[in-house]
Amino acid sequence: MITNTELEYKGDLYPSKIVSYTHDVDSVYFYTDNSVILKLTVLRDSLIRFRFTTKGYFSNDFSYAIDKSHSHGYNHLTVTEEDSYYQIITNKIICKIHKSDLRSSIYDLKGNVLLEDELGFHWEESYEFGGNIVKMSKASRDGECFYGLGDKATQMNLKGKRVENFATDQYAFQKEQDPLYKVVPFYIGLHNKQSYGIFFDNTFRTFFDFCHERRNVTSFWSDGGEMNYYFFYGPSMQDVVTSYTDLTGKPELPPLWALGYHQCKWSYYPESNVKEVAAKFRELQIPCDAIYLDIDYMEGFRCFTWNKEYFPDPKRMVSELAADGFKTIVIIDPGIKIDKEYSVYKEALANDYFCKRADGPYMKGKVWPGECNFPDYTNPEVREWWAGLFKELISDIGVKGVWNDMNEPAVMEVPNKTFPNDVRHNYDGNPCSHRKAHNIYGTQMARATYHGVKRFSYPKRPFIITRSAYSGAQRYTSSWTGDNVATWEHLWIANIQVQRMSISGMGFTGSDIGGFAEQPTGELYARWIQLGVFHPFCRTHSSGDHGNQEPWAFDEEVIDITRKFVNLRYQLLPYLYTMFWQYIEAGTPMLKPLVYFDQEDIQTHYRNDEFIFGNQILVCPILEPNALGRRMYVPRGQWYNYWTNCLVKGGKEMWVDTKFDEIPVFVKAGAIIPKYPVQQYVGELEFDELTLDIYYKEGKEKSVVYEDAQDGYDYKKGRFSFLSFQLTGKGKEVNIQLHKEGKFDTNYSKFKINFIGLPFEVKVIEIDNEEIVFDAAEFKENQYLIVPKDFNVLHIIG
After folding, report:
1. High-pLDDT (> 90) share of the chain, %
2. Taking the complete model, does pTM exceed 0.90, yes or no?
3. What contacts 447, CB < 8 A, 6 or more positions away?
């Protein structure tokens, strides 16, 4: 017998000509004469799904990423046949499918090209594993820019980069290192002032090339699975990001305390050490809402146990911490120690809940407890069991949140640092190997954890944080950027990563402030805390192997800077809470890179450092030592320097002076910024006024403030307060209109209004068309006014 494997190797295969098509409600099926089928589904006028199969039929349609609770709909859909292509027209876009080779081209209604295939869909048979290596290449135009893809330690603009998506435990990763912990196969393209997005919903190892290999070609491919992607049309980046976030889901509101400052270390133990750290925060008057217990709180690193030597009475300790305003968060890893006396192991073993190798034995690997087996979180029965394990921690002991780590999944002392490919998973009734399940393992663990913590925290809201995640994980959990390093380079990386995660649907993200590995200088820690308080998740975390990293581990100047900026975060909690409300309501990113904020200004397309915090605060961190100023780009519009109240005109790069206890922060002209008084923890104080900082503007500006009970679910029944302020400034007068929605009545009865930048001397103040008496001299000196919270119109006249 003669075999010639080279003759058998087929290389890349392509769809041939279309022989027929069918139109079924929102989907159009195109059939080729070599058994390729394209199912094109119009979900919205601006959202189209492309799904290909090479075998003449589709496998079961299942995705962990898509939010199935959300329905879709379009306004218009027609399908026509032309000489060389089929044409699908919606109210927003035109899509042409070419008859000769199944390639697609997408246009706006004016006929401008948005995205078109280069080679289009092609594939390679995977002889080693079966199935296909699926590929897609798109034509890229000169000047096109690319953003998104979640957890990447590289420039904001991905043009010229090739990246890989495979959830990986990358301890002490470096700039440009890839892959990292999270997988978000979603990117945004921008060209000619129009944005579009691509979400490649494939959980196998995936790759994206943004004109790296070939100058005018963008491509993405996967080691297995389907070519299954979604196209989003803007034309604004805001439209693309909110549509993607809507598709993959949004979280519920966290409790307000989860947006406070958190302190963590590997590890705080024994109990006396935990109490000492908590007491020091209160002594130094540095606000803090949560303290974390890493793996050393457990008995031999066994999940759901306590080390009785270190923590003899955890319920008492947690209660005493809570009395002083601290919420206790504990770590839970996926590795379950192989120990026949260990109840969690015995339950999982008895019910056959562990992942198995292809030939039958349980997947076994070394993690912190030693030899472990690993639950298959893709099995709904396992997730339900796992959720039930949190009863003692949450209901009985009083723990307020859970931190999932090592869930890439990470395995020690093996070359690839994770499960072998032959490990089998249930995949919610769609059995598969670890090649398909790897990237969603961490998300399914976080999902099971979320349901458990929510069940036993009710009627309060749960708090979950995860290291590994796939698109859609934001429905269940917050995240952080993993084991970073105490270097200036990593401060730069943290700034980029959190911005990128924010426009990739996973807004509730932060970094380990100060760096996890190695030891920061006092200056580096100070600069990091100055950035970290403007991240949605705000936590200092470090490896105890490298020394202490609490604020008081540094000198008095650093302590004072930490206090100043953490105080600022607590003052801005109503602003931050409002940002979060807009995120869950509309999918609006909490942090906005400058290109998102103003995509039509080409100067923003390659900016990395500056970002918009919420809608109206511009932040630019100091990213190098010994700097008392920096050059930065201020976007178009007018902006007030937060520290000096000086007004600058944007649309240009400028030098900004700072001090060691400042970073460049600007507030948009016309903004109304709400502030609480400084509290040592959320809920410490009852207060009777909300401060509103009002920045004068010639023209109009809208600001909003969302509030509720700060925890619980009454907000879903309409018990919230949503204030809309419309500021109109012209000449020597300012008009502020207030409209309120919701049934929630806030505890405070009045606003303390601070006016900033008024260009005239105030002579008359009217509230709801009635002139009020005020001390003109005192107002001129202090520039503030106390008014009732239920006013409708405030009129300031010069």
Report:
1. 95
2. yes
3. 377, 383, 473, 475, 476, 477
